[in-house]
Write a structure and sequence with these properties.
This protein is mostly helical and 80 residues long. The protein contains two helices and no strands. It is flat.
């Protein structure tokens, strides 16, 4: 087979490296010990950090919304 410039094509599979396929369908269930270890070392750490962060971000959103309303009110007073 020839390419667009009338050159003989080599086997493309040999010319270019191919990424290996991920074997996502060959999973292994975690044991109870592995689950408990994962929960203690990783899951609980994220849970402890997440609640204060979400509360802080909720406060930031409310503060920005309130500031926006005050800005609209002040602009309305100055224009009207």
């Amino acid at each position: 087979m020839k390419d667009a410039w009338k050159r003989e094509e080599n086997n493309k599979e040999e010319r270019y490296a191919q990424q290996l396929e991920l074997q996502l369908n060959k999973t292994v269930e975690a044991t109870d010990k592995e689950w408990d270890e994962w929960q203690e070392k990783e899951l609980n750490w994220w849970a402890e950090k997440q609640i204060p962060l979400v509360a802080f971000m909720a406060f930031v959103q409310l503060f920005v919304f309130g500031s926006m309303l005050v800005a609209f009110y002040l602009i309305g007073l100055s224009v009207g």
